[in-house]
Amino acid sequence: MSFQKMNAPKYPPRHWALVGYPGSGKSTFSTQLRGPYVVIDADQRYSEVLHLAAQDVYPVSNIAYEHADPHAIAKRLQENMPEAMRAPERIGTIIIDSLTAIIAPRVTKAIVEKQEGEVKNLYAAFKDKAMAMRELQDAVTRWGTDTLWIYHLNDASDAEGKTRTKATVSALELVRLTRSINMQMQIVTDEKTKTRGVTIIWSRRGRDGMTLWDESGTWKDMPARIEAAVYDGLTQKDMDRIEASTPEVFASHEVAIDWAMEQGAFGVINHAQNAYKKLLREAQPKDMRAMTPLWIADVQHRIAVKANGDSDE
Question: What is the pTM of this model?
């Protein structure tokens, strides 16, 4: 028989997302993952950490601008990955560095087109952004490799003049991304010691909420340390239970919306996001702990309505 028996791995696949401020060490972190690596170098800075890579690094394209073009990325992966995955040293990780540089220009373009009257509404203008994200996810996740999706944080002033930390990728794109990952991480810095660490914001099938500190300065052995902290001591039944459980507090807005999608309350991400935003406006919860029970009740109501043959969408 030419088929090979499927065995359950010790840990879930490394489909991870990593967020942090520019220069915080996200690209350096990626060099400690399983190689060889295919890098979508949309920031055009991966050469700065090339010397730290544990194994060989292959750019998705030798043409710089193609690294920010989802269609070109999909084409290059389709051309080269089948052979690369049959090689003795098959590709270990596809690194997207960064999603910000791929998606943010499309957001800017959509806003400009709306302002100049080239499109009637932002929904139509954002269609290219949505298609780009969908094409990129389909192109990257199909090969059976590990994946690391990198994006940035920045500080911006809100309407009241207060400084807020925001992701440089829209909430809707982050919800879409959550469908393709099983762990969300953020690079943090201890202000006293200036030591960097990784906080596990959310894990689909394991523990989360802890921070692991990097004493090496180059994230040496950090991916293995993360897996041990998140999964060691959990059986497959434990992981199944965690994945199926209703969180006491959602780790983020995108995780809350992803959970609603998993429950079958919505068929389209946009509908889920709109319902979530509406509840935020009407209830005005002070934090995620207050929002969580409200959203759970809303989702459960929608599921009950669907079961009766109606729809709240």
Answer: 0.90
**Pick from 127, 195, 184, 191: nearest CA to 150:** 184
Number of domains in the chain: 2
E-state strands within the chain:
15-20, 37-40, 57-59, 93-97, 146-157, 163-167, 183-189, 196-203, 211-213
Examine residue 6 and state whether it is found in any structural domain, yes or no: no
Do 148 and 258 share a domain, yes or no?
no
Instruction: List the one residue out of 24, 160, 179, 181 whose CA is nearest residue 96.
Output: 181
pLDDT in tens, 247-291: 999 999 999 999 999 999 999 998 999 999 999 999 999 999 999
One domain for residues 299 and 207: no
Clarify whether residues 217 and 290 are in a common domain.
no
C-alpha angle 130/132/138, rounded to 5°?
105
């919800």: which residue's tokens? 175
Range of the domain at 140: 15-234
